[in-house]
Design a protein that fits this description.
Number of domains of chain A: 1
Number of helices of chain A: 3
CATH topology of the largest domain in chain B: FAD/NAD(P)-binding domain
Structural class of chain B: alpha/beta
CATH superfamily of the largest domain in chain B: FAD/NAD(P)-binding domain
CATH architecture of the largest domain in chain B: 3-Layer(bba) Sandwich
CATH class of chain A: Alpha Beta
Helix content of chain B: 25-40%
Largest sheet of chain A: 2 strands, antiparallel
Largest sheet of chain B: 8 strands, mixed
Distance between the termini of chain A: 26 Å
Helix content of chain A: 10-25%
Oligomer: heterodimer
Shape of chain A: globular
Distance between the termini of chain B: 52 Å
Shape of chain B: globular
Number of helices of chain B: 15
CATH topology of chain A: Alpha-Beta Plaits
Amino acid sequence: MTEVIELKAKLGLDVFKSGSDAHIKIRPGMEKDPRLKKAVRLCPAGLYSENEDGEVVLTIDGCLECGTCRLACGNEVLDWNYPDGGIGVQFRFG
Amino acid sequence: MEKFDVIIVGAGLAGLAAAYTLASEGFETLVLERGDYPGAKNVTGGRLYVNPVRDLFPDLWDQAPLERFIAHEGVTMMARERSITMNYYGNELREEPYQSYSILRSKFDRWFADQAEAKGAMLLSKVKVENLITENGKIAGVVAGGDELHADVVIACDGVLSIISEMAGLRQPGSAHEYAVGIKEIIELDSGLINARFNLAGNEGAARLYVGDVTKGKFGGGFLYTNKDSISLGIVVGIKDLMEDEQGIEAPALMDEFKQRSEVAALIKGGETVEYSAHVIPEGGFRALSSLYGNGILVAGDAAGLALNVGFTVRGMEYALASGYYAAQAVLTAKETGDFSADTLSSYKSLLEKSFVLKDFKNFQETPEILANPRFFKYYPEIAGDIMKDIYAVPAGPKNRLYPTIKQYMTLGEMWSMFKDFRKVKKI
């Protein structure tokens, strides 16, 4: 059996440059949208989670900028942008 | 006011191909890249087929930092508790010029950008394009870092989501059913060990595709490519399929389960994961292509939806390179008259139609629908595995005859379903 590396540890292998502002934001009032709840399972970096109140929250650190949540949730739910130039994940292998 | 002949958004393969071609013709070419360097935001599964694009860039391939040439192909049907693998070794795969290579984009794209710069292109990294400039109904440049940069024509090579094409009104935001997400790990492993494990000599490489339980029966599969001293291992799964899943499948967990399969674990044992990446992939084929041109703008590569999954071959990078090249050709033609209207730039589409790019997309336009059949990802791997299990089993008592053993899986209803499935496959 291969040892399972925790997701946080996997993200820790990547080079990230953090910015001042989150480049993806959940639009106000959309925190319980069913599309957003899908993102909890779909995000390859596991950055979406549901809190005790049934609201989905997003931690932007570790975003791989893959685009999955934009396609799953759409623009009504997410205010989705790429990070500014020189910010975010910088793949060394790709 | 800064004015260029052409501004290219995105220094991936499409953008760099366009830049390399236009700069070679003496065009003032500006490439804007939001990553720290070209390739910083790019992810590939891992293989480039060179044949279709070799002659478009004749001077490029000798020195290109590619990984290994793929000499061995393999496909594995994975059931829950067993798997069947078919390997293909062909002499032609070991003869130069080699048809395909494993590739790491951060390495390749940086090098390709150097070649474009050597031809005279100007590359600015760490710059995100924030908006387009429109004048008299024509795209006339971009806004980046608060500055207005003008050009005769803009080429949008900003990748699968292509927000630039959306801004230009050439496409709507994508729909989940036309995209898959790829998740990948780079696993460092000694090159000698790679050669021993995959039965490779020298710089030979292996490619493996996995279908079935890898994605729990959802559209997609697993992949493995050997690089010089690492392995690219990953999964691809349809976004819509994942959304509709009711078993609570989590995308990152699929990757871990794939790695833990004994068939895969043995190949990567002792390796060290050094990077974790993910990226969305266009899977809609011909019918999902976006508008390729508008007034003062062209769209190339993933931005236009130019990726094609035909089951055994999954391709995107050749289409990116070729579409970048043909976009450049269309710009060269438009420059002759100084007219960069959609009418003139439509020559881009004609060039793509005459080339392998749109011929491939038309030939395989039925494929996405056929591959959407969940039976290929769940039912067939299981039944094939069950048949193999019975063929190989030697029980304590007498063994049943083989034909009746296999036939028990083939009820009339089952044969009818298979007939229908494979009648559709004929369209591929």
